[in-house]
Specification:
Layout: H1 10-16, H2 27-34, H3 44-47, H4 55-63, H5 67-77, H6 81-87, H7 94-97, H8 110-124, E1 138-142, H9 146-157, E2 161-165, H10 174-177, H11 186-197, E3 202-205, H12 216-222, E4 225-228, E5 234-235, E6 248-250, H13 251-261, E7 271-275, H14 279-290, E8 295-299, H15 311-319, E9 323-325, E10 328-336, E11 339-350, E12 361-371, E13 374-377, E14 381-382, H16 385-390, E15 395-396, E16 399-400, E17 413-415, H17 418-421, H18 426-443
Helix pairs in contact: 2-4, 4-5, 4-8, 5-8, 6-8, 9-18, 13-14, 14-15
Length: 447
């Protein structure tokens, strides 16, 4: 067994990481799908979208060949509607709510139609919004992820000049650095960021990190308000023996390397174990397999009924050849000569339901051992607790505390997205950015 990079040919990498949800082949195919829509009154698909995109409206616009109007309808609610059409778990959101499900028929392919319209907008560089005259107000946004970009776009439309401070070399946040490459490419993420900033009035300063290059106190002296959208990205540790052995990595770092360095440069083992079963765990497992791992085993301490990922995501991992070990928890990582060689796991069982109805996994006393040469930890993420303490932000275990107006304990400083909620979907972060912008506009007495 060995951990190695450059395992596959260029053609194999391209095939393994090609678009998993290809677009409609032509206009006619999009029109046929759009005309399946029943254009429901009080449509459940709208209610299930965190950004409340008017789905029946944009689909009817596509059906009547008004693609530009459809793109405007989407972007009015979700300026990252293009990216969300590729990465959203639509099976539990808009498409999961489609009334066709009640008829035991295939739901409308809402995401694919959304992609159809937004792709046209990005390709054609359609300017669908016009900035209002400059107000003279300036706002700093920390983080060029979905929350920060969404907030910036709404503010800029209202005539506010926005400067975004981003710690990475590219914008997009989770979209650019934290999602499987076969769902959305780095090139698309860059194009989406460029499209958002093409409105005008939005400047992004890269390699600028809160707590290292900038502080809230300094920003407040220059700007009329500050919005924090720094996300959540510190990998949770397993706290078991052997965690520092060579060959142990975290899923966030693993996916980051794939996104930033390219497929051939990222090493992967022959036999890989992935700890956890959230979306990030699935992305890590499937990409390890697509990088050339011979065996990938996902370790999850509960059963399929409790898994945090969707069934569609699990099916994807299984189709890629990943195995799942249910009711198992890592106990110790063993190694030889400083390198991972085995993963010792506890066999778990679920306890009786507690007051909330949740059943906790508890060890049975039995164990089993997997022969592995790489362990990828995907057991969740923890907020930037030390950072928010340093910036004197009120928080709960690192999650920034805000009131109903998205305001923090520091006057003029607002926050939203994963740094507040602990980590949700991209579309939730987009809505948080919109909410933050609305709160800032009210604070500045502009609306």
């Amino acid at each position: 067994m060995a951990i190695a990079n450059n395992r596959l040919s260029a053609e194999a990498y391209e095939q393994h990481f090609s678009d998993i949800h290809p677009p409609f082949e032509n206009r006619e195919a999009a029109l046929v799908e759009a005309n399946r829509c029943l254009f429901c009154y009080d449509a459940p698909c709208i209610k299930s979208c965190p950004t409340s995109i008017n789905v029946p409206k944009f689909i009817k616009q596509i059906a009547t060949d008004n693609v530009k109007g459809a793109a405007h309808t989407i972007f009015l609610s979700n300026i990252m509607g293009g990216g969300c059409s590729k990465v959203c778990p639509v099976e539990k959101l808009c498409e999961g709510a489609c009334v066709y499900n009640l008829m035991h028929e295939t739901p409308i392919h809402i995401a694919k139609l959304q992609r159809y319209a937004t792709d046209k907008a990005l390709e054609g560089q359609w300017q669908l919004f016009t900035r209002k005259p400059a107000t003279g107000k300036k706002v700093a946004v920390i983080g060029a992820g979905p929350a920060g970009l969404s907030c910036a776009h709404v503010l800029s439309r209202e005539g506010i000049d926005v400067t975004i401070y981003e710690k990475e070399a590219k914008g997009g946040g989770l979209m650019t650095y934290g999602i499987a490459a076969y769902k959305v490419t780095p090139a698309y993420c860059e194009a989406e960021v460029d499209y958002i900033t093409s409105l005008g009035g939005i400047q992004i300063l890269y390699n600028q990190e809160l707590g290292r290059d900038i502080t809230l106190a300094a920003l407040q002296q220059t700007y009329d308000a500050v919005y924090i959208g720094i996300g959540v990205g510190i990998a949770r540790q397993l706290e078991i023996p052997g965690e520092t052995l060579a060959g142990v990595t975290d899923a966030i770092g693993f996916i980051y390397d794939i996104r930033s360095k390219g497929y051939p440069a990222v090493p992967v083992g022959d036999k890989v174990a992935v700890i956890g079963l959230g979306m990030t765990a699935i992305d890590a497992a499937t990409q390890a397999k697509r990088l050339g791992a011979k065996e990938v085993t996902i370790i999850y301490r509960r059963t399929q009924e409790e898994m945090p990922c969707t069934t569609a995501e699990l099916d994807l991992a299984k189709l890629d050849g990943c195995q799942v070990q249910w009711l198992a928890a890592p106990k110790e990582i063993k190694g030889q000569n400083g390198q991972v060689s085995q993963l010792l796991c506890d066999v778990m069982q679920l306890s009786a339901p507690d007051a909330s109805g949740r059943r906790s996994p508890i060890p049975t006393g039995n164990t089993f051992t997997l022969e592995v040469d790489m362990v990828i930890k995907a057991a969740g993420q923890t907020p930037f607790e030390m950072l928010v303490q340093q910036e004197q932000l009120a928080h709960r275990h690192g999650r920034i505390l805000i009131n109903e107006h998205c305001a923090t304990n520091i006057p003029g400083v607002f926050a939203g997205g994963d740094c507040v909620n602990g980590g949700k979907e991209v579309v939730d972060a987009v809505q948080a950015g919109k909410d933050g912008a609305a709160a800032i506009l009210k604070f500045l007495s502009i609306q």
